[in-house]
Design goal:
Length: 327
């Protein structure tokens, strides 16, 4: 079994992942003689990370893990001589927890011996090779996609790379769980019907989460306008809008009133499909306009969600209904 676990910082995803892999390992019955492995990927580069590493060690103490430090090149763990390889040769199925993909991505992108621009391909390949060597593999990743802006170009490149990896791993995985405030929610294999052409659909999620592909696949949308560049009046005659949050930003920058935007859309284009990035998470922006923009975009999306016949949310390329569909 390959299981992907995602969630924000401090969400409880690590505790959930540890409990999950321990339970899966114990369910191997008489074959559970294989090792229970913890692949640790965080480099100890300062007091803060050392404290975090210590906290995680204390969390998994007494759980029977054998820890392997691996900062780059995880595919090597499936090669001859590794504990994983040796257990597979003996026919004793291993259970592996990889914690976590967000650290590995940064290491591969920025370390001198990392994969650089080939990071996504290398890590997805590495996870695939690990999975061939073990019975259960749980991969923890991080949700870093629900802030207004990534900041630097370097951070945007990191987010896009991690999003690509998460989406590809989610497609490979048998199951995907998002942990929010310590509560796990299964998000893999939600069943969604095709669009009937009646009433508004709102699709939300963090940046780079595959919302457009999900909308095209699920609802058959094949024509878009982009909120970052479209005319303000185009939204009332189009079939679908993506980057709706950028439309709100442009309207505010131009001094155009946005207080009635949701109601006007509902009245003039009630069947529109709207894709919007979640931008309300993260620290409150210092800049006054950024604060006002984030709050107004959130209010408008709340109004749209109330109006919409259906609201879906995409995480790691997987869409799930949070209003109006099968749950």
């Amino acid at each position: 079994m390959l299981h992907l676990v995602t969630g924000g910082s401090g969400s409880g995803k690590s505790a959930f992942a540890e409990d999950l892999i321990c339970r899966l390992h114990s369910e191997n019955d008489e074959q559970a003689s294989g090792p229970l492995l913890y692949i640790a990927t965080m480099m100890p580069y300062g007091e803060e990370t050392e404290k975090k590493i210590l906290r995680h060690r204390l969390m998994r103490r007494e759980k029977g893990f054998e820890t392997i430090e691996c900062y780059t090149g995880i595919h090597a763990l499936a090669k001859q001589g590794s504990p994983l390889y040796e257990a597979a040769v003996r026919g004793a199925p291993s259970s592996v927890l990889l914690e976590c993909m967000s650290n590995l991505t940064a290491n591969e992108l920025y370390c001198p011996d990392g994969a650089g621009c080939s990071t996504a391909d290398e890590l997805v390949r590495g996870v695939g090779e690990l999975y061939t060597m073990c019975h259960n593999l749980v991969v923890v990743t991080n949700d870093v996609f629900r802030e207004g802006r990534a900041g630097s170009c370097e951070m945007q490149a990191y987010r896009e790379t991690l999003a690509d990896i998460n989406t590809r791993l989610a497609r490979m995985a048998d199951s995907v769980t998002e942990v929010v405030c310590g509560i796990p929610t299964e998000i893999k294999e939600n069943r969604n019907g095709k669009r009937t052409g009646e009433h508004m659909i709102l699709i939300t999620g963090g940046a780079c989460q595959g919302k457009t592909a999900y909308a095209e696949r699920t609802y058959g949308v094949d024509s878009w306008i982009d909120g970052g560049s479209c005319g303000f009046d185009e939204i009332y005659s189009c079939a679908a809008i993506r980057h709706f949050e950028l439309l709100v930003r442009r309207m505010m920058e131009s001094g155009t009133c946005t207080s009635d935007l949701a109601g006007n859309l509902a009245a003039r284009n009630p069947d529109v499909v709207i894709i919007v990035d979640e931008i309300g998470c993260g620290l409150v922006p210092v800049d006054g306009f950024e604060r006002a923009y984030r709050e107004q975009a959130g209010r408008i999306c709340t109004e749209l969600a109330h109006i919409a016949e259906r609201v879906d949310r995409a995480v790691c390329g997987i869409g799930m209904s949070i209003k109006g569909g099968e749950r």
